Amino acid sequence: MTDLAIGVIGYGLRGNLAAHAHRPGEGSRLVALYDPDAAAHDRFRDRFGSDVTTTADLDAFLGLGLDAAFVLSPDYLHEEHALALLDAGIAVYLEKPMAITTEGCDRLLEAAQKSGGRLYLGHNMRHMPFVREMKRLIDSGAIGEPKVAWCRHFVGNGGDFYFADWHAERRYGTSLLLQKGAHDIDVLHWLCGSYSRDVTAMGDRMVYDPSQGGEEEPWWQGERNLKRWPPKSLTGLNPKMDVEDVSMVHMRLQNGILASYEQCHFTPDYWRNYTIIGTEGRIENFGNGEPGTVIRLWNQRHQYAPDGDHSVPLGEEEGGHGGADPRIVAEFLRYVREGGATDTSPVAARYAVAAGCAGAESLRAGSVPVRVPDANPEVVSYFEG
User: Fold this and answer.
1) Is residue 89 left, alpha or beta, with left meaning phi > 0 and alpha meaning psi from -120 to 50?
2) Within a domain: residue 300?
3) Which of 53, 29, 44 lies closest to 333 in space, CA to CA?
4) For residues 200 and 369, what is the distance between their CA atoms, to the nearest angstrom?
5) 167: domain CATH number?
6) Domain count of the chain?
7) What percent of the chain has pLDDT over 70?
8) Is 269 exposed, middle or buried (0-12, 13-18, 19+ CB in 10 A)?
9) What range does the domain containing 259 cover?
10) At CB < 8 A and 24+ separation, what contacts does 74-78 make?
11) H or E segment at 136?
């Protein structure tokens, strides 16, 4: 089997993801990088060999005859880079969020439909073992018919990860409700089998402040230090920050399920918790793949029963994000070669962005209700038919 020639756009914090596609002689090989940063070129060559092509010229990269490419650039460049790849006939792995506006997502869907190109979205949480097990249990009827869902997202490293660089500016990411919430909203949609129709949100920046700017070594260039606490003591943050560090959004899904998503960027712990309540029980995760992660199911009447009626322990798996990263890359490579159904969905990714954008609009307008715009039915039929 001839190796697929794989390129990478942007070799930064998510560069390790693309490494799962470097399997010379086994079906795929990383052969090229586009990145304006010369230091990224050095890192790429050091890891994948001196014979790879590295360039700061996007047109040159597009002309290399690639079979597929990973778009791992910053969020505000996703649309531009994915459109260029689709126009060049190159299959696309597009890291989430799909784009930073609903309109940008729709342009990508229409471009993929018109070109017949293969557009794959990097919502790797759909491949995380605890999410997949929750999906299996819900679909099996373990809690009856789902009616209510919520996610609490404790972003314990919010200051280090999201308020020290471009993430802190609306012009580059719209909001952290979109940037971080795209993952969780997509999971809520997937577990509930529907997309958001109406949203109402509120939020604010309650802790981080532009005065926390100044010079400090970014966390990813030094030893990750859990002693960087409390959040108000952090320095080296982006003085242009204008996004919220707390966001809460209520959603009514198209199938009538009520859902909510709460995100806080100054908690002492870092994980997310999903609760789905149905007509015959509820299900909840504790842990996101770390040792001791367990899914608990309640399906009998109780007063207080912290351990639930049934527990499903999950073992550790190798690979980033609890083993999800190697799984999602394997699915993408299969899709490039064979096509067919995938667990991730461009339409679902679009609705996750649309719900996040609608939530940001609502919270910044005094919590007014906002209708999530529908995707073009013809486009939905093309991708999901």
Assistant:
1) left
2) yes
3) 29
4) 5
5) 3.30.360.10
6) 1
7) 97
8) exposed
9) 126-325
10) 74/10, 74/12, 74/166, 74/172, 75/99, 75/100, 75/172, 75/173, 75/179, 76/100, 76/166, 76/171, 76/172, 76/173, 77/10, 78/104
11) helix 129-139
pLDDT digits (tens, 9 = 90+) for 145-161: 999 999 999 999 888 88
295-321 in b/e burial notation, b at 16+ Cβ within 10 A?
bbbbeeeeeeeeebeeebebeeeebbb
Give the torsion through C-alpha atoms of 308, 309, 314, 320, to 10 deg.
-40
Is the residue at 254 inside a domain? Answer: yes
Instruction: Taking residues 164-176, report their average pLDDT.
Output: 95
Which tokens in the block code for residue 51?
């014979």
In a domain, 338, yes or no: no
pLDDT tens by residue, 268-296: 999 999 999 999 999 999 999 988 999 99
Residue-by-residue DSSP string for 57-111: -HHHHHTS--SEEEE-S-GGGHHHHHHHHHHTT-EEEEESSS-SSHHHHHHHHHH
- At position 325, the amino acid (one-letter code) is D
